[in-house]
């Protein structure tokens, strides 16, 4: 009995989904076959939803990288108000005549005095203010990248990253599918266990009541009653616990679906029928091609990324060429009159190009290139290890799948034998040919065989799901 409880707890933990969802208002009602549940979860499971968002974000990231090499237009508006304009001293000889010098000096001191300052002129020099107090500039610039090695590598990296994200989404879908199969089977196992335990409890209760009457008539020993009471109490306690675990299993299944955990969900498939459908020995005869597995594709994507990182570091030694053209207009005045219709604006435009040539970096670029080369070597080694792990995981999954089928066939035979043994002991006990202890042992053996048979069905379902996840060939 204790072993069965431990097994059921472990099954519930295995079936626990890797996603979470906020409860929704109200209690919904759902009904699913296994395939319907898988299809529903692939659309509504939170992890599947976020995987699709990752792909969408990767698509935008690819365009962001592409746009860096396309024309860029920037505009700017600059306004300046020189609260205190700078003064420049010019020698008096720079002016054409003395009168112009006097006028300039007088104009300067008039402006200074109006600002509340007292400044004495310097002998032989004339203080002059260049420009106006306020100015505004409007500029638009068109820039274009002509050649940059790192940009070309970036385009390749963006494409590889998108492929990597697509593969991650596919892996997520496989894991969601596997999680649904595991949790669906766990619910069916818990419900079937409740049904069997209720039948066992009913049979035990009948035996216990009959034995009590026989004891009350003095035709049997009290120990026979006590033996049956022990078994009855154990079954009753196990039934109560299994019902609670069945509720938890259903909540976990709802969580893996992506619905409220309190939803009333009905599972329409049968545990044994699912196990029989999954018993396919022909799958062991199919050739295993590691290159078709999702883990191989992801591992290859990682080596591609490291290779592009090395290519990027090498490209930094190449020159980059860019060009630009801008157009601007500016206005100047001592007052803020830039929105007046009669304000005069002065136009300007510049066309330019530039070449940036890396010459010497004190071996910095060389060091970064060597680091990228080492990282690529590490990625290649890890990829080899990944291929070995894929083969090992396939061999282990295939072995566990075949063993699950063999265990199911054996457990069915053991269950039939245990039922016959328990039935014979029931007859012997009723006729007084065996003790209640013998009957209890036969009953416990039957209960264990029942749970082993149920467990073997679930093992087939889960082992087939694991194998299909590795093969990346789920049933359509």
Q: What do these coordinates show?
A:
The chain is an alpha+beta fold and 476 residues long. It folds into two domains: 2-71 and 148-317 and 362-471, Outer membrane efflux proteins (OEP), CATH 1.20.1600; 86-130, no CATH class. 63% of the residues lie in helices and 14% in strands. Strands 2-5-7-8 form a four-stranded antiparallel beta sheet, with no helix packed on it. Strands 1-6 form a two-stranded parallel sheet. The model is unreliable at 1-26 (pLDDT under 50). It comes from Aquimarina intermedia. Residues 1-20 form the signal peptide. This is Outer membrane protein TolC.
Taken in chain order, the helices and strands follow as: HEHHEEHEEHHEHHEEHH
Query: How much is the radius of gyration in Å?
Result: 42 Å
Largest sheet: 4 strands, antiparallel
CATH superfamily of the largest domain: Outer membrane efflux proteins (OEP)
What is the CATH topology assignment of the largest domain?
Answer: Outer membrane efflux proteins (OEP)
Percent of residues in helical segments? Answer: 55-70%
Q: Class by helix and strand content?
A: alpha+beta
Give the N-to-C terminal Cα separation.
Answer: 39 Å
Distinct helical segment count: 10
What is the correct CATH architecture of the largest domain? Up-down Bundle
Strand order, sheet with most strands: 2-5-7-8
Strand content: 5-15%
The dominant shape is elongated
Number of domains: 2
The average pLDDT is: 86
Give a brief description.
63% of the residues lie in helices and 14% in strands. It has 476 residues and is of the alpha+beta class. The radius of gyration is 42 Å and the shape is elongated.
């Amino acid at each position: 009995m204790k072993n069965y409880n431990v097994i059921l707890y472990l099954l519930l933990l295995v079936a626990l989904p890797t996603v979470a969802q906020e409860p929704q208002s109200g209690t919904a009602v759902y009904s699913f076959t296994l395939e319907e549940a898988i299809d529903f979860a692939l659309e509504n499971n939170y992890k599947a939803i976020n995987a699709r968002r990752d792909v969408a974000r990767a698509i935008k990231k690819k365009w962001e990288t592409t746009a860096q090499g396309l024309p860029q237009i920037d505009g700017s508006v600059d306004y300046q108000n020189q609260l205190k304009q700078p003064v420049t001293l010019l020698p008096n000889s720079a002016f054409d005549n003395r009168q112009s010098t006097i006028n300039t000096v007088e104009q300067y001191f008039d402006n200074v005095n109006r600002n509340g300052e007292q400044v004495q002129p310097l002998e032989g020099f004339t203080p002059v203010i260049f420009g106006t107090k306020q100015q505004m500039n409007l500029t638009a610039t068109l820039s274009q990248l002509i050649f940059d090695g790192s940009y070309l590598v970036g385009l390749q990296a963006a494409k590889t990253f998108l492929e990597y994200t697509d593969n991650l989404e596919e892996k997520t879908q496989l894991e969601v599918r596997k999680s649904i199969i595991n949790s669906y089977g766990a619910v069916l196992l818990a419900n079937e266990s409740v049904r069997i335990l209720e039948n066992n409890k009913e049979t035990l209760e009948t035996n216990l009541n009959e034995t009590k009457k026989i004891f009350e008539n003095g035709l049997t020993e009290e120990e026979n009653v006590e033996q049956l009471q022990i078994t009855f109490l154990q079954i009753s306690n196990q039934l109560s616990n299994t019902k609670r675990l069945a509720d938890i299993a259903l909540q976990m299944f709802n969580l893996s679906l992506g619905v409220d955990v309190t939803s009333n969900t009905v599972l329409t498939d049968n545990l044994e029928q699912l196990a029989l459908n999954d018993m396919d020995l022909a799958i062991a005869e199919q050739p295993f091609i590691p290159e078709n597995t999702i883990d191989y594709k992801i591992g290859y994507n990682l080596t591609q990324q490291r290779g592009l990182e090395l290519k990027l570091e090498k490209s930094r030694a190449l020159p980059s060429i860019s060009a630009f053209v801008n157009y601007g207009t500016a206005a100047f005045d001592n007052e803020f009159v830039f929105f007046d219709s009669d304000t005069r604006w002065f136009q300007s435009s510049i066309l330019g190009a530039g070449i940036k040539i890396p010459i010497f970096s004190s071996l910095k670029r060389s060091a970064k290139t060597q680091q990228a080369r080492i990282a690529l070597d590490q990625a290649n080694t890890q990829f080899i290890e990944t291929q070995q792990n894929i083969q090992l995981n396939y061999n282990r999954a295939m072995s566990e799948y075949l063993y699950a089928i063999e265990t199911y066939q054996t457990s069915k035979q053991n269950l039939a034998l245990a039922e016959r043994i328990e039935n014979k002991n029931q007859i012997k006990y009723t006729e007084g040919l065996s003790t209640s202890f013998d009957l209890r042992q036969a009953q416990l053996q039957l209960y264990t065989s029942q749970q082993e048979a149920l467990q073997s069905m679930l093992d087939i379902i889960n082992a087939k799901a694991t194998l299909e996840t590795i093969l990346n060939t789920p049933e359509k």
